[in-house]
Amino acid sequence: MTDLSISLIHETAADGPAIDKLHERAFGPGRFARTAYRLREGIPAEPSLSFTAMVGTLLVGSIRLTLIRIGPVDGLLLGPVTVEPAFMNRGIGMALIRKSLDAARAEGHKLVLLVGDEPYYRRTGFKRVPNGRLEMPGPVDPARLLVLELVDGAFEGISGPVLPRLARSAA
To answer: What pTM value is reported for the model?
Structure first.
């Protein structure tokens, strides 16, 4: 592995165009039809939980977390996490995931949901959602619907629709 000096920093508004181009290269135009994208549509990512990976001044990765409702409780949707293809397989994606999850824990969030590959995300504690427990706003492969409890027991008894959330709920 080549030693790269990578900085993980909060995403800024100025990063938006570079991140959009990164998503376009990584996921293509079909990304807008995916359920996770549809769930995030029109909802800004949480600035305090969204990070970029930089090599010097080059943006090489991005992660965003968005506010959602998971059944009756507040939660977060992780994604997309994206790494520039030339910088893949260097631990950047996993470093971004850990950074954002640590920030979410520090802010007191309890649940994170994502649509992704279980073997990859299992390394950070994500587990498959039992079939039929959550209702997504579009089709999703049940084997790819994953949840992470940031607080032990936070997903116990939770079921129902997964919906966008425009603002933080009062605690």
So the answer is: 0.88
